Amino acid sequence: MKTCRLWLVKEEIEEERLPLATVIIIDVMLATTTLVDLMERGAKKIHPVSSIEEALEKKKNARRKCDYRRRTWRNIIAEFDYGHLPEHYSGDLLKEAELVFLSTNGTKAIQGTKRAKRRVLANLRNVHYVSSWLKTQEIEDLIIVCSGAGGHMAMEDYLCAALLIGELDTKQTKLDDAALFAFTQKLNEKRVKELVKLGRVGRYMKRHGMNELLQFTSDIGASKSIVEAINPGVLAFIEGGKAGGRNDFGKARGRIG
Known about the structure:
The protein is α/β, with parallel strands linked by helices. The protein is built from eleven helices and nine strands. The strands form two sheets. A seven-stranded mixed β-sheet has the order 7-1-6-2-5-8-9, sandwiched between helices.
């Protein structure tokens, strides 16, 4: 690997750097976590989109209607059918479902990097397996995109990126400043989980009694799945396809929604 760049928010995306790059997209709370989880629990096809208008257009052609989400945590856009939390999707609902999925930050990062050579979704649950997969690939340029929130860095996204970079062999790699700083953190899993709780979204979840969701999103190593965004804008498994068995939100909660 010749170069590794870390973009702390989706607004840093530079399209001219994408065509030869493998891009890792991170939105721990919640888009990339939820998307991988929905794929693991049986969704047949997911279309990440970047706007309400695009979502509604794709919804017209979807076999089953599931759309995603609003800027608030507990409300759903009027035209949409479901919300943004993993618990909103039961196993029966997901079986062979085709979903149209919109989020405030994560899906915009996915769509904003569509010129990349490859795009892979990472979160704290699958970060170890994404790093292991990267080690098997012949990659010249790696770009890690943290989705952030409203143009600001999100603690949990950065921590996931730092864990990922820390597991890669970067001895011969030119790191940009953000990637180099992340590499020097030398974070362990216990510290990451502590810091996630201190971040803005972590504090919000604790304040509103969403402790189970906080635990789910922070369950490092729980997922063995690697999900890729492929053209024309759908998700597919590279490896895995089943949850790692720890704290599977759908199975733990049973039939939900």
